């Protein structure tokens, strides 16, 4: 990394201002970092020198430095003085936010009609869920679950509230588990959440300002949610190719968006939802360089990262992160059971502390029994054994789905063959009324996930899942669906 030049300071605080002097100094340094004038690694003069430059006493400088350290913007390095440590997420911490307004029950926008219909009909008896985003309940490791419950029944002697960041034993287990993926995070940098969706709610509530720009793949899972839009943020889609987000197309948009407010990226680089695409390592490295150069913070959704069952597993973006610009979201919902409601956030400690504080306002912690159970799954090795079996079965179902589609949809649609995850993104070759297909399929007890709910424009696609149905159930539903399409055509 190129060594930054010595900084020049020709500013002094206004001692007649109603704003306390130490806060003026905080805002001055914050401004230099946010504008990119003081990049990561920039050395800050010693406190004695700063006191002389600003014309204040050392206690005022100490108060300013302590506040900036608490945000994670600067840090002290042994033998190297104080330096700028982060210029992305940490810059979103200082502004005072009205958290209660974000958490209030009247804040969230309603889902659209199609999503509400899907949420309702998923629990109808006899409905074949051909696009659902959860694993088949029949794949749940019930024998392992009984062993885990038996073990924790001997270990757990009370069920009180847990500390704000979550059960320490679970955070230790998550830390050790994520090391296998190349992510090195201490328990103090991990927050346990009630699923990864809550993590997105927390980030929107206490890190992002209204009118922030959230860039993401088009299509994307995030488009089916209202979490960021409800908080007054602008969602913008970036086109994809077979290797994932075409991030270089962001360059022109960033110039406009940065002038209006902060910008971030939300991405699912591995086994993308809904397309199934996985970004290769070379593009990941280029993507990280682009975001570093543009000081663009990243939310990496790793919900499907562990479900790679073909070839070598790619490195998470977080494993390439040297400046704390990536917030990583993990989840047990796709790999074990959505009913556990266990997810986790990995980020710089100041970010995690802020998110943990707001989580305590929301629900006072994720389920204690779920946290103890998942900690035992991870630390005992049962989780790794379950993952191996699950991926073997998902691969079998994926191969079956590919054969079934070739048999019944050849010449009607095109589709991808994913290397992991749950989804096949199918696009019809001729224009078809997807809304009408959705309604017709429901009458045949087939529940679809139309592509429109994930995209920024109307499309001609479906998200198909092979994870929830057996091979025979998938083939029967696809055969009936092809019959409906022929009738419509």
How would you characterize the overall build of this protein?
The protein is an alpha/beta fold and 489 residues long. The protein has three domains: 21-87, Winged helix-like DNA-binding domain superfamily/Winged helix DNA-binding domain (Arc Repressor Mutant, subunit A, Orthogonal Bundle); 113-139 and 385-488, Aspartate Aminotransferase, domain 1 (Alpha-Beta Complex), CATH 3.90.1150; 154-383, Aspartate Aminotransferase, domain 2 (3-Layer(aba) Sandwich), CATH 3.40.640. It contains 16 helices and 17 strands. The protein has helices at 21-34, 47-54, 58-71, 99-103, 113-121, 142-155, 168-179, 196-206, 227-230, 251-260, 281-293, 349-362, 368-380, 382-409, 434-443, 471-488, and strands at residues 43-44, 74-77, 81-84, 128-129, 190-193, 213-218, 234-241, 244-245, 263-267, 298-301, 326-331, 343-346, 413-415, 423-428, 446-447, 449-450, 461-465. The strands form four sheets. It has an eight-stranded mixed sheet, with helices on both faces. A four-stranded antiparallel sheet has the order 13-14-17-16. The protein has a three-stranded antiparallel sheet with strand order 1-3-2. Helix 2 (47-54) crosses helix 3, helix 8 (196-206) crosses helix 12 (349-362) and helix 14 packs parallel to helix 16. The longest helix is centred in the C-terminal third of the chain and has 28 residues, at 382-409. It is globular. It starts with 20 loop residues before the first helix and ends with a helix. The mean pLDDT is 90.
